[in-house]
Amino acid sequence: MKKPGPTPPLPALPGTGGDLRLQMALRQIGFDPRQTEPRAQPQPRQAKAQPLPPADDSRALKRREWLLDTMERQRALSPYASGLLTAENLSTDQFLHEFYAPGRPVVIKGAMADWPALARWTPDYLADLIGEALVEFQGGRDGAGDYELMKDRHRRRAPFRQFIALARDGGNDAYLTAYNSAANGAALAPLQADLGHPDAYLARAPGMLWIGGAGAFTPLHFDLTNNMLAQVTGAKQIILIPPSQTRHLAHDRHVFSDVHDITDPERIALYPAARDLLRYEVRLTPGDLLFIPIGWWHQVRSESFSTMLTYTGFRWPNAGHETYPG
Ligand SMILES: O=C(O)CCC(=O)C(=O)O
């Protein structure tokens, strides 16, 4: 088979450059916590006649799941077609043809080597640079099972130095996440000077910052865009699960899985179908990029004080969210 020829450089994704609010919306578009209220119970027939769903809906769904399973088994025949690869200095064309277009995750090493942040971003450096500027973060997460679903309830503000002290203490209670990016643009602007940009894969749009302590945890979910994670400080454990496994993941509420944490035996006891599914684990360390394609489930746990950016402004269209059936 002929290898695809080189791809001419494409312009930045129209409309998204620099607009953090838009980027945040694109990640989990259509998010509306009201949609997560318990579903209405079936009403007695006399309440109101509702049209019945077509009789073959569940069979159509089973056939689609059969197809996803069969295709996944077929991909597993070849290490070229499946698995989580690590690549060094991947070119634009390789990234497009082998990962972005097929929707396959990859860890990329070496692309952040010239970022000053890699050597600078310790908790002390960050606290001294940003000082007492007020920042927004997610707080009060301990003891709240739905902190990602009910993001707005957990918005908190504090001087940055105080937030860094919380993060340094560790735990999952306080986490500055991508969701806080728009609010923090001005306060955290001085950090931009320490960042490079992986132009081979991304248009020039700002990333969304995550800062948290050891134990910060983002539960199992997928995003409605392709995402590039750029790890700057510390290490994160990430579990990735292909979209073909969705039916094992109690996917009922928006982009979240009721399993919440696939490594928690108590949750697995509640959702045994999630026990033996196909999954990949990766440990991100400073300087690693991780490409997570749209629809791939992931959960993330910080092993230590950690800083990371996520980018959605790729050189190619990234608009799956526009047709997501909510
Ligand atoms: O780093 C994290 O805690 C979560 C990152 C994530 O899930 C995402 O960017 O979609």
Automatic annotation (TrEMBL):
Organism: Sphingobium fontiphilum
Region (Disordered): 27-59
This protein's name: JmjC domain-containing protein
Residue intervals of the JmjC domain: 186-326
Cited SMART domains: JmjC
Pfam families found in the cross-reference section: Cupin_8
Biased composition (Low complexity): 38-50
Gene3D superfamilies: Cupin (2.60.120.650)
